[in-house]
Amino acid sequence: MQVVLDGKLELPCELQFPQCLLLIVIMDKLPSQPEDVQALWCTESRLSEATTRVSLFKAVFCSFEQCAGELSLPIHLQGVKSKGQVEVAVTLYQHICVHLCTFIASFHPSLFPELDVALLNAVLSANMITSLLAMDAWCFLSRYGTAELCAHHVTVVAHLIKSCPGECYQLTNLSILLRRLFFFMAPPQQVEFIQKFSPKAAENLPLWQYISLQALPAELRKQAAHEVTRAGIARCQEWLSSSRTLGELESLNTLLSALLAVCNCASEALDIVQKTTIMEIGSQLWALLNTKLVTGQPYVQQTFSLLLPLLGFFVQTLDPHLISQVVTLQTSLLKLEPPDHVCLAVLDFVSSLGKFFIPQAFQDKILPSLSSIFASLLADRNWIVEQHTLEAFTQFAEGTNHEEIVPQCLRSEDTKNKVVSFLEKTGFVDETAAARVERVKQEKGIFREHLAKVAVEEAKWSSLQPYAKRPRQESPLEEEYRSALQAASGALEAVESLLQVSPAPDWLLLKMEMLQERIDELKRHVL
């Protein structure tokens, strides 16, 4: 047992996969064992200062994390026999997920606390596939358990999301889990959740950007959609009528994200006045954007990336002047090689234009820009952008009345071949089996290096011992000081950029004097 569950077990690459299968075999046999034997395997224990025995749950997730190559190929294993069904081969992911869920359904109830800890730690993992496995197991647990257990899990995850200090991969993972678990809640518990985390309260609105209102019954969905929309519209209008500082963009982006979630999941619940107001807010916000702001400020990039799908949702009723402005700004941005998430937002909008008939007076302005956007992104070497571009281009080409620009987007033979291969659902990269295995081996090495770096970073923050040649452990608060000062410095640089392109508003000098007074006061505290 100690050898298999050793907390510092370091196996060579070729033994990681057998180790994973061994752990699954042990897991399959445990339900038939007494409670004390199950507890021994499923409870973490520190045997000495240098020796730790991890729980079987943690060992499975850690071992699974090391099998990137086997998951990528993928390797196929013997499936679980089902009554009346033909046995089929399954992937390693399916194999582990099925056996893990089977164990969860049959192990002793006293071990649920250990399971909860292991699942949460795995969900928060920097490894996406490990996090996904934990989410699948957690969703099984919520469906297998009682309605009250599911509601408890949703509440815990909601509180964890609210406690996240800012954007991070852990928040992304938790938000995906919340969205999935919410579908398993019984209607009475959903009513309680809406009462407990009412969208009317400003501190709860961030949660609703992650929840699919499709999970709610019709009447409850309509109620929640109206509450989120009313709160989002009111606060967006407050921002538009205020001094509009960059420091407040994070909260504005949260509002836009919540409104977008409603439009995507419950648009039928919105009345014409609400839809018109959202569209007007989007138009007013777009008027504030320019190329320099979007390229220089991450929060503005996020605003840009949220506005595009929001405007795309109302594309049939948008003013052609606004569409022309949007497409022109997109074309200018792509020449500056923006981040990938900005490119994906651009694709979201231009694909929606397939449903829009461009008036004759605007065709000479919009159509060349559209073909330029698609041509640029179809030539992108990032495979995620490339895949999304192929999907967006296909959607646009199938729906547009302006067929003449479709061939203008395909400006090279390579691009034409990619589009044809995509439409025919054939791969456009020939790879032999041997070459594929070699590539997967190289990728596995890259994954191992990345996971090792993540482990070092996590250990650095969790360890209470100072590093060698370092007199003390740096307090996490010191990092917060640095982040706060960097944010303040970035805000000042943004003001400087704005002053270069437009005259200062009347209130700016007074605000700057007030900031100076606060800085002087802070300096006195430091001294």
TrEMBL record:
Gene3D superfamilies: Leucine-rich Repeat Variant (1.25.10.10). InterPro entries: ARM-like, ARM-type_fold, DUF4487. It holds the Pfam family DUF4487. It comes from the Eukaryota. Coiled coil: none annotated. This is Uncharacterized protein C1orf112 homolog isoform X2. It comes from Callorhinus ursinus (Northern fur seal). The gene is CUNH1orf112.
